[in-house]
Design brief:
The chain is mainly beta. Helices cover about 5% and strands about 60% of the residues. It contains six helices and 50 strands. The radius of gyration is 32 Å and the shape is globular.
Length: about 850
């Protein structure tokens, strides 16, 4: 009994070729090879038994079934990624597969918001891949052959913007400054004339729903404790140190900024108010290419910046790197009035006036490589770093007066500080695209290192009401510094199950060591050495299901936290450990082609920053200081949101957050010493409600408009033992208008307004500003020159706040350079027009995020 199976040349599934087939039949307990089977029967003059006939029949059926598998319908695949000339993904582009012989359409798909598409179950043959998108010229590939030797074809397709002449006005499709996707808001700095030439710190202050307070704390829709990531990596630094880092990053080097209010289980549970993820650029265009830029910024003082971005991509190996240098200078000031409300002080005042100047420089760099071991195996390494300094010189006058504002005495002081910082992050990544369905496995290892030092010197003299020296001089010298070392390892797995289900799982471990020291000498002598160690182990699972018009996603994340804070000077130790589960849930319902609704829920944690736990007292002047709180506990938040989107025009959202054990900055006052200090305390709870409307549309072919209006309500309940609460309504809005003008000119007019709001126990005053920018392409569209003015009416230079509760009564008005004139030039070189070619397109969101490193 023998069955011969011939291989078919056009079979797409690859199987091992069988060199021999053993057909086994049992006679008298013996196993007979198929070559001797007939000989054995003849020699023994035996007929197969009934049982043997059954065995033969079963074996025949099995072999026929296996043969059918060999002849089964082929499973060829074409997958790829659609981008523009700047390597930015183009979502919702139409990918059409055309039969090269009949010129008829065979199959079609639409790219997702990452620009990726997959066309499955393709018969062997010759095809043409056509990609089209409104506002871009159609791209058609050369003839593609699919057969046994080439079952999976991968393409990266670069679309060129299409231009239409209209009465001497060139109308060109442009990337939107704000893009609203299902799970996040995406901001594209390059799409804005005014923001592309600013640093990232200034850009954040202009984003919809984002506010930055006087202490550099970032809030999202009135909610504090926003987690800021750079290339999906935590920064692990204080608010002031993060501000210094972001001021050294140019918007020109940022690919996009993602605002994620309810992250999935794949993200760390840290960040009660959501995540702001800053994605830096990583050009992967074929061949050798790059860009160079330079710019100036003028306010009360002069600043400038420059940089270079290079990329070499030759098939298996992609090398990239960029460097930027940023110099800044300016002036700032503050006026504050404190009123002492106790009976002993009888309504006396403290009046503070401060004026200062600053200047600094930041060097930023990133280098990396991607090496494709095989078509579906890639190893990547990346090194990102920054170093810089910032000098501050301040002159302060602190005056004490009675309730009638009659001066008693005045302290005149001068201070100067010189901040220095260095940070580096090394990342190694391995990605394996297991099969063409999207199954993948990736592993990451990171080591980050941060160093910060800040020497500060203060000198002061007391004068009486007549201006006579009271011979009571003060002097204090302070040296502050800290070193942070972080090691993290992460593993992520993705498994699509059919067309409707997707499963994700992963694990992560992080080890953090923060070593900080402060030494003060002079009229006040203090020394502190604080060591904080933290270890977090995490694991997550995430399931996603697509049923017709309904998408469901459920995730669970488990995090085990072990931390230890040690004040070496005071011998105070605080150990903390806890194990928590963080669920997340998401559902999207498509009502029709124009309308869909989304509901999201997540449970998140907020951990205190390391400097918040340090019990050291940091003196700003003899009457003002900050102090840490080693007894701070983490806070936990239930976050819900409901949104509705209409086409790509309107997005309406409602949000609700309830935080238990809220920790926040609190201002306290000591009437006996006349001092005021700021610390962090765990309060009872807080409630946040917000509603927003985002609009994006084109009133005319030459005019694009986008805007967001957000209303917010916040209520903070203090500790149950003291009682009391603060609550306030507020709103903010922003609008951007982009105009396409004759002679390749483009103009942007944008503005924003904030009514003020409640942050901690401070109420901020309202403020607004308007920006104007214009740009033109030159040198055959390879260069762009931009001219922009931020806050053209100088209305945003003041940022005031006040606090009135218990014995605290203080009003603060800050002054800073808000009106700035900026001129910048950018030039692209190397290949800027590419034919469609085969290139690696990843199968998971993790690799997509890595492409921005």
């Amino acid at each position: 009994m023998r069955l011969t199976i011939k291989n078919i040349d056009n079979r797409c599934n690859e199987f091992t070729v069988f060199e021999s087939i053993l057909v086994k039949a049992q006679f008298n307990g013996q196993i007979i090879p198929d070559d001797n089977h007939s000989k054995y029967i003849n020699q023994n003059n035996m007929k197969p038994s009934k049982n043997n006939l059954h065995r033969r029949l079963l074996m025949l059926v099995s072999l026929v079934f296996f043969a059918n598998l060999l002849w089964a319908e082929p499973a060829c695949v074409i997958k790829g990624r659609v981008t523009d000339a700047n390597n930015q993904p183009i979502g919702f582009a139409t990918a059409t597969l055309i039969n090269a012989k009949t010129n008829k359409m065979e199959k079609g798909e639409v790219s997702d918001n990452k620009g990726e598409f997959v066309i499955n179950k393709i018969n062997p043959g010759e095809y043409i891949l056509s990609i089209s998108m409104v506002g871009y010229a159609k791209n058609q590939s050369e003839k593609i052959t699919i057969n046994k030797k080439n079952p999976v074809v991968e393409k990266t397709v670069v679309l060129k913007e299409s231009s239409q002449q209209l009465d001497n006005v060139v109308v060109t499709a442009k990337k939107k400054f704000i893009e609203q996707t299902v799970d996040k808001m995406v901001v594209n700095p390059d799409a804005s004339i005014t923001t592309a030439s600013e640093n990232v710190y200034e850009i954040l202050k202009k984003l919809p729903g984002v506010t930055v307070d006087n202490s550099d704390n970032i809030s999202l829709k009135g909610k504090q404790n926003v987690k800021v990531l750079i290339d999906e990596k935590p920064t692990y630094v204080s608010a002031a140190q993060l501000a210094a880092m972001l001021k050294g990053m140019q918007g020109k080097n940022v690919d996009r900024i993602e605002i994620i209010e309810n992250p999935s289980a794949r993200y760390d549970a840290e960040g009660n108010s959501g995540i702001i993820n800053i994605k830096t650029k990583h050009n992967k265009a074929p061949g050798f290419n790059g860009s160079a830029f330079a710019g100036t910024e003028t306010a009360s003082k002069f600043g400038w910046n420059s940089g270079l971005d290079l990329n070499m991509n030759y098939g298996k190996l992609n090398l990239y790197g960029n460097y930027s240098l940023y110099n800044w200078a300016g002036s700032n000031g503050m006026d504050a009035t404190r009123r002492f409300t106790s009976a002993a002080m009888n309504g006396a005042y403290q009046l503070i006036n401060s004026n200062g100047t600053y200047d600094g420089q930041s060097n930023n760099y990133k280098v990396g490589a991607d090496y494709f071991i095989r078509k579906n195996h890639v190893v990547s390494v990346m090194l990102r770093g920054s170093n810089g300094h910032n000098n501050n010189e301040d002159q302060n006058a602190t005056t004490f007066a009675d309730k009638n504002l009659q001066i008693d005495s005045t302290l005149i002081s001068k201070s100067n500080s010189n901040e220095h910082w260095k940070n580096q992050t090394f990342n190694a990544n391995y990605k394996w695209d297991i099969d063409s369905t999207g199954q993948s496995l990736s592993a990451d290892f990171d080591h980050a290192w941060f160093n910060y030092t800040s020497p500060n010197n203060q000198n002061g003299t007391y004068y009486n009401a007549a201006g006579n020296n009271l011979n009571h001089d003060i002097r204090v010298n302070t040296l502050q510094g800290n070193d942070i070392s972080i090691y993290t390892a992460k593993l992520d797995y993705m498994l699509p199950i059919g067309k409707k289900f997707n499963f994700e799982a992963g694990a992560k471990a992080s080890f953090v060591n923060n070593d900080s020291k402060i030494d003060m000498t002079g009229y006040l002598v203090q020394n502190d050495h604080f060591i904080y160690k933290e270890n977090i182990q995490a694991a997550y699972i995430n399931g996603r299901a697509q049923f017709s018009k309904t998408t469901l996603q459920l995730g669970l994340r488990l995090e085990n936290t072990i931390s230890k804070g040690t004040s070496v000077t005071t011998n105070q130790v605080n150990d903390t450990s806890y194990l928590k589960i963080f669920p997340s849930f998401f559902v999207q319902q498509t009502l029709n082609k124009d309308n869909n609704i989304n509901f999201k829920y997540s449970y998140r944690i907020g951990r205190p920053d390391y400097d918040m736990l340090n019990p050291f007292r940091w003196m700003i002047d003899p009457y003002t200081y900050n102090v840490g709180n080693p007894n701070l506990k983490p806070q936990f938040t239930h976050s819900l949101s409901l949104s509705h989107s209409f086409k790509d025009i309107l997005t309406t959202s409602l949000g609700y957050n309830y935080t238990k054990g809220l920790f926040t900055q609190i201002i306290r006052q000591n009437d006996e010493t006349k001092s005021i200090y700021q610390t962090n305390e765990n309060l009872n709870n807080s409630l946040d409600f917000n509603a927003s409307e985002t609009v994006q549309f084109q009133p005319a072919k030459w005019w694009r408009l986008n805007g967001t209006l957000t209303g917010m309500y916040k209520k903070i309940e203090f500790d149950s033992s003291t009682g009391g609460s603060l609550n306030r309504w507020s709103f903010n809005g922003n609008m951007s208008n982009n105009f396409s003008l004759p002679y390749k000119l483009e103009m942007e007019l944008s503005g924003r307004y904030t009514s003020g709001g409640l942050v901690s126990n401070l109420i901020f005053k309202s403020r607004y500003s308007i920006d104007l920018g214009i740009q033109r392409k030159i040198f055959k569209d390879q260069g762009i020159i931009k001219l922009a003015v931020s806050d053209i009416f100088n209305t945003g230079q003041g940022n005031g706040a006040y606090a009135k509760y218990d014995n605290v009564d203080i009003v603060v008005n800050n002054k800073y350079d808000s009106r700035r004139l900026k001129i910048s030039f950018n030039y692209n070189f190397g290949k800027s027009e590419f034919k469609t070619r085969s290139n690696r397109s990843t199968a998971s969101s993790e690799e997509q995020s890595r492409s921005s490193k």
